[in-house]
Amino acid sequence: MSNLMMTELFKLRKGRIFWLLTVLLLLAGACYPFLIFFNDGTFDAHAVEVKELYTFSALGGNNYIIRLIPCILAGFFISSEYSIGTMKSICASGNSRIRIYLVKLMVFSLGAVIIACTFPFAILSVSAVLSGFYEMPTWLYVVRTLCLTILYALAFASMMAVIAIIFTDSGKTIGFSILFFILIDSILYALAQKFTLFHMLFNHSIFKLFLDIPLNNLSNNELSTIIIVPIVTFLLCAIMGAIIFQRKEIK
């Protein structure tokens, strides 16, 4: 297991797509505060409170990043290994398929977590420095929101990994994943308006609960639900992906 893990970590560390996505998000997050604090060529250190910029711009914008950007990584990190024959070589190495899938899922999830945290961390850091730490969010709020972001990044990554295993082609994986995560909210919401079962599923899904991460006045029950749902989602998708990979024919 340790050799397999080290191999996958090496692939992630050397992956150009992973670093390209991370650097682009880092630059986007670092540049965004400059657009806010510089207005008509003049600098206003108190143009906006840092806590508002972090809550609405960083966490709000991260809603799309965490759902869509890792889809690109899934296509190149998982699906592309079928077409170039790497997956067949890995399966012939003596490791069980379940172990191979779980290790690959863990490393891919690590990449998704880094991607998910890069944008809000960059905005928070740069805006704090530019504004002289004007009206900062509390550290408890920052830690809570980032920890929840990590949980939901893991949940979304587990779903993307299942899609990548099913399609085994980077182009199909990226295209279907992006389309799926763009449309699924609207589809579930429309069904929730007509069917009680879908109403319950939608309200207790990662797609709905992820939007509640920035909220500051969550009750204990609401916070418990927000924490438990992504964990259960990750475990279920991990089991599903392992079963699919175990039975899949690899050419």
From TrEMBL:
Keyword Membrane: yes
Top-rank lineage group of the source organism: Bacteria
Membrane-spanning segments: 64-84, 105-133, 139-167, 174-192, 223-245
Keywords for this protein: Membrane, Transmembrane, Transmembrane helix
UniProt cross-references to Pfam families, sorted A to Z: ABC2_membrane_4 (PF12730)
PANTHER family listed in its UniProt record: INTEGRAL MEMBRANE PROTEIN-RELATED (PTHR37305), MEMBRANE PROTEIN (PTHR37305:SF1)
Name of protein: ABC transporter permease
Lineage: Bacteria, Bacillati, Bacillota, Bacilli, Bacillales
